[in-house]
Amino acid sequence: MQTNDLTPEKLRELADLKPDNARVLSLFLNLAPTEFASPAARGAEVRSLIDQANRLVKDEDGLSHDELGALRDDVERADKYFNNGDFDAKGAHGLAVYIAGPANLFEVVKLPRPVQTNVVVDDSPYIEPIADLGSRARWGVLLVSRKNGRILRGTSDGLREVDQVWDNTHGQHDQGGWSQARYQRSVEEEKNSHVRAVCDVLFEHHKRAPFDCLLVGCNEELYPDVQGALHNYLGERLVGRFDVDVENTTAQAVFEVAQPKIEEHESQRERDALDRLVEGVNAGGRGVAGLENTLKALNEQRVGKLLVNYGFNEAGTQCPQCGSLFPAGVAKCPADETPTEQRDGITESMIERALAQSAEVVVVRYHTDDIEPLGGIGAVLRF
After folding, report:
1. What is residue 88's predicted lDDT score, i.e. its pLDDT?
2. Sheet with 341-343: strands ordered across
3. How far apart are CA 319 and CA 364, in angstroms?
C-alpha cells in the first residue's frame, strides 16, 4: 500500500520555513520498487546519499564555522536515522528528509512517487522535487454495497484504506403475500440506514482531512441512494461512479480500477486552469505568461494560480533583502538597490513565493505542449 505524507498544508509549511542563522539540509532518496525492492539495494542507495551529503557539505562555499559544524551534525543525524532502525521504507516510493539542527527541524516525508536521489543545502527546505506531489488533488473513494462500506483516500499516485463500516441486513426469502411486502420494506429501510451511516462516517473523515474530489464504487442501482445520503459538501466534490467488488477487492486493485477516472478528472482540471490562463492572457487582464511577466506578478502578490510546465527551470536572480525575483541578468533590486543573488534554477523560489501567497501551484503534466508556447510558465491573477 502506497504512503503519501505530503499534503498541501505540509508543502506550504515547508515553503514558509526559513530558519535564522541556519542552513537546511534537504535529502531525497529514490525508493522505486523496480530498482530498490531489496534491503541490499536500498542500503546501497542510502550509503550513496550519505556520501553525497558529506561531499556537498565539505565543498560548500560561503559557510561560517558554526554553519559548517551544524551541517556536519545534520549529516551525522541523517546517517543515524537511516541506520539505527528508525528508517522505514514501507509504502514509500520516495523519501524527503529535511534537517536543520539549530532550528530543531527534522522532517521525514514519505512520497508515493520516486524522486531522484539528491542532496541540497540552502537557507530553506528545497521543495521543488515534491511540489508537484503536494499540489495534487486529495481524493476520497467510497465503496458501498447493501451491507458493507469501505473508505479509501489518496491522490492520483495511489490509495490507502482508512476505514470500514459493516452492517448485517436481512437476507432475501421467497415468502409471499403481505408479510413479504412488509419484509421487503424492512430490507429497504435497513439498506437506506446503512448507506446513510456509511456516508456519515465518510463525512467525518472529510471534516478531519478534507477531500478535493470523491469517487463512489457501487452498483448502478445503489448509486442514487448514495448520492442522496451524501452531505452537500461531499456532493459538490462527487466526480462519478465505478463498478467494483466492494467486499473482496484490495486497495491496490481499487486504485487500478479508479485510476482512469481519477486521471481523466485531473487532466480536465489542468485543462480548465490552462484555459483560464489563456483567456486571461488574451484579454490582457487576469493572466500573464512567460518568465518575466510571471515573476513580476509574484513580486506584486497578484498570483492566484501558478502554472509551471513539468521540468521548467530557467535561471534567475533574487534579492536577499526583500525576496523579490527577477530574470537572469538583473544585478540589483530595483526597489532597494541591493545586489541580487544568482539562481541557476528559479522555479524553486517561484513555487515558494506562490505558496507563501496562498496561491495554488499547478505543475502541468497532461498538457505540456499547450503551455510551452506561453513560455512554459504563467499565472492566473487575483486582480
Report:
1. 83
2. 325-327, 316-318, 341-343
3. 27
CATH architecture for residues 8-134: 2-Layer Sandwich (3.30)
Residue 210 has pLDDT above 60, yes or no: yes
pLDDT by residue (tens digit) across 344-375?
899 989 998 998 888 999 999 999 999 999 99
Q: Is the dihedral of CA 328, 334, 335, 338 positive or negative?
A: positive
Q: Which helix (H) or strand (E) holds 109?
A: strand 105-111
pLDDT digits (tens, 9 = 90+) for 172-198: 444 444 455 565 666 678 888 999 999
Strands 105-111 and 303-309: unpaired
Q: Is 8 helix (H, G, I), strand (E, B) or coil?
A: helix
Domain(s) labelled CATH 3.30.420.60 in the chain stretch across 139-249
List, by residue range, all CATH 3.30.1330.30 domains of the chain: 268-381
Which three three-digit cell numbers place residue 379? 499565472
Q: Which CATH architecture has domain 268-381?
A: 2-Layer Sandwich (3.30)
pTM: 0.77
CA 288/CA 51 separation, integer angstroms: 43
Which strand (E) or helix (H) includes residue 72?
helix 65-83
Q: Is the pLDDT of residue 61 over 90?
A: no
CATH homologous superfamily for the domain 139-249: eRF1 domain 2 (3.30.420.60)
Domain with CATH 3.30.960.10 in the chain: 8-134
Give yes or no for a contact between 372 and 308, defined as CB atoms under 8 angstroms apart.
Answer: no
Phi/psi at 223 (5° precision): -55, -45
Under the banding of pLDDT at 50, 70 and 90, the label for residue 171 is very low
Residues shown for the chain: 383
Nine-digit cell string for 237? 466534490
Would you state the pLDDT for residue 2? 54
DSSP classification of residue 359:
-
Q: Which of 206, 198, 204, 246 is nearest to 226 (CA)?
A: 198
